[in-house]
Amino acid sequence: MPRQILETNNYGERLLKLVPAEWVSAYIAIKGILDSSSNPPSKEVYFVIIGIQFLVLPFYLKYALQIKNAAQVWITSLSFLIWVFSVGGQHFGALGWYEGYYGSVLIILWTSTIPIWRCTNTNVADSSSLAGGNADDSAG
Q1: pLDDT tens digits for 9-18?
Q2: Using N-to-C axis directions, what is the helix angle for 11-18 and 70-87, rounded to 10°?
Q3: Most buried in the list 17, 109, 111, 136, measured by CB within 10 Å?
Q4: Residues 62, 70: Cα–Cα separation, whole Å
Q5: pTM greater than 0.90 (yes/no)
Q6: Averaged pLDDT for residues 64-87
Q7: pLDDT per residue over 32-46, tens digit each?
């Protein structure tokens, strides 16, 4: 499924395109490896990993997945941070103000509202315009 959001995408399709599941999965895998270590790293290591993933994600979206709409890139990047926050962990617990339910509530609110935003690029052709062109193009 192409990740660029089109005008024809429904709510569910937009939701899938605004959550970087592969990046969240990578974070969860890295977190699992670090957590299972007999000598787990400091909380700063977790936050450095989150930061690196967050900084690289917009380039991945733009160049690897060919997403041209800046709003979609930034909303997807913010989605990554919210999903990571919802996963939680001892590194978040060390922040003092963090409560586990914050992430749970935030992820429910975020994932139920982001598909409402229309992150479409009107310059991107949808499949119907690619199929047949228009009558003006057939002349001459």
Answers
A1: 888 888 888 9
A2: 70
A3: 17
A4: 9
A5: no
A6: 93
A7: 999 999 998 999 999
